[in-house]
């Protein structure tokens, strides 16, 4: 993992932990470093680190994995961090990565996973939902279905 990927990942984790429903912005990182820690970094330099233009000397070697673990936080927070970590790991599979992030960002991530379990345990339901919703989360209307004026299945 590159330094830039780590910084982006940590901004995402921090946004989830703070309940923002979004990543912490680069400007928020810059302000917080200045206010809380008396350190300064420019937003443009942070952007260069994230883009890979700077920071390459501290990138992890190929195949290196270091799990983000902590005893701090609630079980819900730990679950969300685990989901975000999984999303990062599957970043080359955008559908899986987006799904894991969506669950992590949801207010009731445990209930979302329980719902997924119930869907998978109900015979035929997962296949039917995949037909209706499509694997990428967009409507994939089955053959012969009619769309309403809003573009949704009627």
Point out poorly predicted stretches: 68-72, 137-154
- Tell me the helix content: 55-70%
Shape: elongated
Q: What is the terminal-to-terminal distance?
A: 45 Å
What is the mean pLDDT? 78
Q: Tell how many strands the DSSP assignment holds.
A: 0
Structural class: mainly alpha
Query: Number of helical runs?
Result: 7
Describe it for me?
The protein has about 150 residues and is mostly helical. It is about 55% helix and about 0% strand. The protein contains seven helices and no strands. α4 runs antiparallel to α5 (about 95-105). The longest helix has 15 residues, at about 5-15. It is elongated, with a radius of gyration of 19 Å. Residues about 70 and about 135-154 have low confidence and may be disordered.
Which tags fit this structure?
154 residues, 0% strand, mainly alpha, 55% helix
